[in-house]
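Deliverable D2.4 — example input (structure tokens):
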């Protein structure tokens, strides 16, 4: 069974039809890259996977989106527990103005974890998983804002992992980072997919080709083509996909 299945999903901002009849299956423990030119709906789509668009005024969504066998747009769904299962990391690192430690344990604390030893355990496990532990273990009580951009982004990944999600959504997680910090995040994504299902929006064709198993090409709110990354990049079946991945687009 796919981890996520999207069936005839449509999204409108007011009258503007931003996502059109999207059909997609996202496999467990794989990295799925969403690519396409600016404004084609990638961010809108990734936000719809944990109902972040619910927070925007004037949005109408119809269709079905299953997380395993649960339609996450069904009326009785608890959005807070959905977002616990489907975590998110944003484009620019956005740690809280708190210590490194407090950033990581923020979510678990809000969910009622009180035991100091349990919180310590969550902090260490999450920072290790985010490949940040060795760099910060001696300064957990220092401000997160003193970290480099790349470290801050790994901290945001640790903060998301602390909630033990099943799926990690990443909207252009390296666009604000230099090449070295970018490659560390890419290596991390490679490791994380053993335990998590990852969906990533990227503007970089090279990044999509390097790190993803599956690629979905969006254009003007539609999915034009999706499949194995290797295939999408070497022998796409749609001319528009070919133009985009070879850089001839627009
Ligand atoms: N809050 C909003 N209200 C109205 N229109 C919006 C809103 N957010 C996005 N849009 C529109 O929806 C379309 C898709 O935007 P979206 O940000 O999803 O595209 P994108 O592919 O992620 O673009 P980029 O690569 O530039 O981030 C665009 O035409 C955008 O202007």
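Example output (designed residues):
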């Amino acid at each position: 069974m796919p981890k996520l299945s999207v069936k005839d999903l449509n999204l409108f901002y007011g009258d503007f039809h931003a996502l059109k009849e999207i059909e997609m299956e996202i496999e467990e423990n794989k990295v799925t890259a969403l690519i396409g030119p600016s404004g084609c709906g990638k961010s809108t789509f990734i936000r719809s996977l944990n109902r972040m668009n619910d927070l925007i005024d004037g949005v109408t969504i119809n269709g079905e989106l299953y997380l395993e066998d649960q339609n996450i747009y069904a009326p009785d769904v608890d959005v807070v527990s959905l977002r616990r299962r489907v975590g998110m990391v944003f484009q620019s690192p956005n740690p809280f103005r708190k210590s490194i430690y407090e950033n990581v344990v923020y979510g678990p604390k809000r969910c009622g974890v009180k035991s100091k030893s349990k919180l310590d355990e969550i902090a260490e496990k999450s920072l290790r998983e985010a490949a940040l532990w060795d760099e910060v273990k001696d300064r957990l009580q220092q401000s997160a804002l003193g970290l480099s951009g790349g470290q801050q982004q790994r901290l945001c990944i640790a903060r998301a992992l602390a909630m033990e999600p099943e799926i990690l959504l990443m909207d252009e997680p390296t666009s604000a980072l230099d090449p070295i910090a970018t490659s560390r995040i890419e290596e991390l994504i490679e490791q994380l997919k053993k335990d998590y299902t990852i969906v990533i929006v990227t503007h970089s064709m090279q990044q999509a080709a390097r790190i993803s198993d599956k690629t979905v090409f969006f254009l003007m709110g539609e999915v034009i083509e999706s499949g194995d990354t290797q295939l999408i990049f070497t022998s796409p079946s749609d001319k528009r996909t070919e133009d985009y991945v070879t850089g001839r687009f627009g």
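The pocket of adenosine-5'-triphosphate is lined by residues 13, 16, 18, 36, 38-44, 56 (CB under 6 Å).
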